């Protein structure tokens, strides 16, 4: 056989191998679960804005144990009778001290896989007293580690006695269970998490850096260490707050990782982004792979900080995407797995902040569901719902939706 013929035959064999490999890859499922279906599809599982429901909720994380599901989420608490309460009653507005409120972390328990919930009435973690976390606490991530719970959260604070608006840092807190269940411990209103005094992932205000904002943590316990995934924002002006500053803007949004030991001492802080464009994520390591459930922000997001007070596009048209990785370094392309509902539905404005419970053969997802309605907030009618004012005649409500998918980790096996 001549030299040219040998090369031709070799090229043909390579081409066949490439085609075969490509065909095998294309036939391999892109994810180990079916399409998510909202369940229920006509209402949230936790509503908001009326008596007996959270005042204004978002950013849930849900974990499970033998007793049931445990939800931790951001909520707006207004003081009544000397205490901050999870709920607001529009029919009894005079009972509340409307100028005394906090944004903090709520807890709820479900014994029926998240279809109905029992709410703790007071925050399980409070802002302060340190300046870096004395304004708002939100976006919790919670994991059980032996006889304790470990929480990571986003914190807003103050600088030089003034609020440092939209400049987040990540904090940590723990709660000893002392042999009790999570439900028993946290439905006791006298119990709160103990906060670590300094941020575990501080923001960088000195140079343009991916840690100019550190926010939306998600923790994985693997090989005896806490792998903390979080969103880092690179800002145009690292020493300034975000809203109201000419020239301020977001240069980059991405998912990063830091690693901590069991005493929450930092072991590793990676400089390289894991996933560019990921936002408000939850990360799992399950069945030998990393699974990232993320918020997909529309194109307007990168230009939003200049008008962050306007609420004209507040989380509008966001959806939920999925990435996976075997080793946590190279990632699949994003797949959209859940989108907002139709007009007038409970999630018509947008959806974000997914959290997923892995059951044996199912995935149960919870997410922030935003609804836009034609209602005034100033004044708030007695038969209305407390929410976020958008213009003079509209209100945005934050609630928690639920969806399910069939899960089959063997779908990836050859």
From TrEMBL:
Superkingdom: Bacteria
| Keywords for this protein | Signal
List the biased-composition ranges (Basic and acidic residues): 34-44
Return the protein name.
Answer: Beta-xylosidase
Protease as UniProt keyword: no
The answer, when asked if Signal is one of the entry's keywords, is yes
Residues in the signal sequence: 1-22
Region described as Disordered: spans on this chain? 30-53
